[in-house]
Task: structure prediction
Amino acid sequence: MCGRFAFYSPTEAAAALFGVASAQPLTPRYNIAPTQDIAAIRTAEGGVRELTLLRWGLVPSWAKDPSIGNRMINARAETVAEKPSFRAAFRRRRCLVLADGFYEWKKENAGKTPYLISLASGMPFAFAGLWEHWQSRETGESIETATLITTAANGFMAELHDRMPVVLEPATADRWLAGEDDVMELATEYGPGLRAWPVDRRVNNARNEGAELIEPAGEILTS
Result:
């Protein structure tokens, strides 16, 4: 499961890595939590890529109540193509969610320690995601939401958790958006190495924000 992440790189530069010609700057975020807005890239009309904000927690178009999105923050790569909640989006509404790192909690003697995981290069990356449009039949309210695809942890991540988000670089991101590959093939292509370091437990509270949340509180581990 991936339940918290950070995106603090300059928006325009990060979006350009994934084929977006221009993007409005966003406020750096160091503790993004479910139900909050996330920066996502999708293919618009004419094949042009756009950067937009989507609410984290996918609400299927057929849902009666948008609160279902609270339980749909992740979709498993192994079953996403068949699950009723995700299969339509998997076929037609893929997206990239911009990030600089994601958090996982490692069980240790003193409890669970939060770790931030990023690319070893320090470059921003993208999660493989899906998006949906939902509209209330009663009020006409509409929202656009997204979920992150997760897969079994690779060797490095297995020391921290048994699952991890599907991490994409520009080349694999192109293939994901184009729908050319099975997600399980992309899920095994991690590209460059990862690094991880423990951070302050203040990140446990989604109300806490700020660059101090990503400061190392111990040894930096590299794959």
